[in-house]
Structure formats: structure tokens, C-alpha cells
Amino acid sequence: MFMGNRGVLHDVDSHIRRPWQVRRWLVCVLAFRGRHWTGMTPNRYTELFFLDEATALAAGHRPCAGCRHDRFSAFCTSWAIANPCAARSQRPTADEIDRRLHAERLAPDRSKRTYRTSLSKLPEGVFVRHVDWGEAAYLVRGGGLLAWFAGG
After folding, report:
1. Among candidates 83, 78, 59, which has minimal Cα distance to 139?
2. What are residue 47's phi and psi, to 5 degrees?
3. DSSP string of 103-124?
4. CB 41 within 8 A of CB 67
5. Helices 69-82 and 94-105 sit at what angle, rounded to 10 degrees?
6. Predicted pLDDT of residue 72
7. What is the CA radius of gyration of the chain?
8. What distance in Å separates the CA atoms of residue 73 and residue 53, rounded to the nearest whole number?
9. Tell me: the pLDDT tens digits for 81-91?
10. N or C end of the chain, less CB within 10 A?
11. 124 vs 101, residue with greater confidence
């Protein structure tokens, strides 16, 4: 239902070569103002697809300020509540949010940052990977875990 963008991730042969290129990770609508995309176009951003907004947000993306302006505005309002700043008198900018999100994604060696905690400390809607269960993803819901699959 949504398309994501992390920059140019693929090479001219359409092989994924990196997990991200830019710190601005967006979640966009599939169609906007008649624009059409051809997947894996050389030197153009790599289209990522998400079944729903929860999956896109869990993957570290934020709503696009262009094609999803209302959702972006709501995201900024929620962000300001969750990340209060005495110096800020207005809503946070996209750059401010992107810098913070990107810093939270990366470990000091620029690898993907991960966290270990108990299930009871996690909020509803968080996606997790259990260290003893391989690479499978799970959604925290109702105090338990639901297996996540690409098809829903």
C-alpha cells in the first residue's frame, strides 16, 4: 500500500548493494500527481514497498511531507510531544526529525543499532526479532508476539 525511499540502494544490474544511502527515509503513497516509477531504474532511488504504515514506521521511515502531508503533520505533532525541546517554539522540521531518527538507527560503527529488552517493556506495535528464533520478525500485540509475514 506504500512505497519507501532510502536513496539509491541498487547497482546498474539491479542488485541491492547497501541498506541505505541517505538519512531521509520516507514512506510515500503509490501514486501521486500522475507520477510513474519504473522499479530499479539505474541512478534513481530504489523503491521499497510496505503492506501498511505500521510496517513502514517500524522500518524507520517517516511520512513524506509532499505526498502524505496530513500524515506528516500529525507525525510532527506526535514527535514534538514525545521529544520535547524547551528551545523549540514550533513544530520540528523534517531535517530535525531525520537527523534524530538516523542517529537512532546507527551504532557507532554505522551498523544497524539493535536493543535488547524484555517483552514487558515494549509498547504495542513494535516489531522485534527474538534472539533465539532466527531472523523472523514479530509484532508486539496484547502483551504477546504475532509472527509477521510479507503477505500480511
Report:
1. 59
2. -75, 130
3. HHHB-TTSSBP-----GGGSPT
4. no
5. 70
6. 96
7. 17
8. 15
9. 888 875 666 78
10. C
11. 101
Cα dihedral 132, 134, 140, 143, rounded to 10, equals -30
Q: Which three cell numbers stand for residue 21?
A: 544511502
Is residue 5 within 8 A of residue 48, CB to CB? The reply is yes
98 closest CA partner among 3, 2, 5, 30: 5
Is a pLDDT exceeding 60 seen at residue 48? yes
CA angle 141, 59, 63 (to 5 degrees): 100
Q: For residue 143, how many other CB atoms are within 10 A of its CB?
A: 9
User: Domains of the chain: which residue ranges?
Assistant: 2-113, 114-152
CA distance 136 to 144: 15
| Phi/psi of residue 69, nearest 5 degrees | -55, -45
